[in-house]
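Lecture notes, part 5. Sequence design as translation. It can be helpful to think of inverse folding as translation between two languages: the language of shapes and the language of residues. The source text, in structure tokens, appears below.
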């Protein structure tokens, strides 16, 4: 196994990021990492060629910490992947549904099953990741504790699935981005392109309104815009944005020029082909 054929993900074998790696790059070997920082380091240090990074979920929203970590990772976004998420309620073999009192999983998975868990009278317990929760209950062999994880995790850790498709919404989908040491430059003539970037606006009235005005006047679609606090200062916000378009296109160039005029910093995280799911969700 060479690093060029390895894709890293955060979590244990059987995590949803593991499934996304298999779906998007079935020919590559996967490298489980304890934390997001370890995952990014694996790519920077040459242990892996790519990293599969969860960004947001259609039910639970933004994945915590990712927007802080990506700009400082030193890596570039080269692709995106939308992965349908089906949560399974599992427990050690021989457990009946009535035996369960508590369920362990990642905070995102628990949030995506909140209503179902409440209806079943089960207490959610937050753990670092989904597959890790499955591994924990397999070791504990306590029939009162279950886990929410993937069907792959149940298979790997020898658990029974007591209830399938626990997610509250049928559209439950996670968006991942794929990051690499080197950027790519896709040709917009070959299909839709997405550009991701972060920026900080100047501390003047209506700065954000003025900074984004160029996208409106130049007909650029902003598909995502989020702000988050930096360094614990509530007046120091950074914005993460996705737009449809390539920085070499004249309309995008003009919009970025206007953005730069009203911003203290603009940093492109990646330019990459749009996943077909964007315009044809299934």
């Amino acid at each position: 196994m060479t690093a060029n054929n390895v894709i890293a993900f955060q979590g244990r074998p059987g995590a949803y990021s593991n499934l996304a790696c298999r779906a998007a790059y079935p020919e590559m070997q996967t490298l489980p990492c304890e934390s997001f920082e370890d995952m990014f380091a694996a790519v920077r240090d040459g242990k892996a060629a790519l990293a599969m990074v969860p960004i947001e979920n259609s039910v639970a929203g933004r994945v915590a910490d990712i927007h802080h970590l990506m700009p400082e990772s030193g890596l570039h976004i080269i692709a995106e992947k939308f992965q349908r998420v089906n949560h399974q309620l599992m427990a050690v073999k021989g457990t009946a549904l009535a035996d369960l009192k508590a369920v362990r999983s990642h905070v995102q998975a628990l949030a995506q099953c909140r209503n179902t868990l409440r209806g079943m009278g089960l207490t959610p317990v937050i753990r670092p990741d989904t597959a890790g929760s499955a591994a924990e209950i397999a070791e504990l062999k306590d029939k009162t504790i279950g886990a929410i994880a993937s069907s792959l995790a149940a298979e790997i850790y020898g658990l029974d699935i007591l209830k399938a498709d626990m997610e509250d919404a049928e559209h439950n989908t996670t968006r991942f981005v794929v990051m690499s040491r080197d950027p790519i430059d896709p040709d917009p003539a070959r299909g839709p392109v997405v550009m991701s970037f972060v920026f900080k606006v100047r501390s003047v009235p209506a700065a954000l309104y003025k900074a984004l005005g160029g996208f409106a006047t130049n007909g650029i679609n902003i598909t995502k815009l989020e702000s988050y606090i930096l360094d614990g200062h509530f007046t120091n916000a950074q914005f993460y944005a996705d737009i449809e378009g390539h920085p070499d296109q004249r309309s995008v160039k003009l919009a970025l020029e206007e953005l730069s005029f009203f911003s203290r910093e603009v940093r492109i995280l990646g330019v990459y082909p749009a996943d077909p799911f964007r315009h044809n969700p299934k």
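The translated text above is only one of many valid answers, since several sequences can fold into similar shapes. Residues 250-261 form the longest helix (12 residues).
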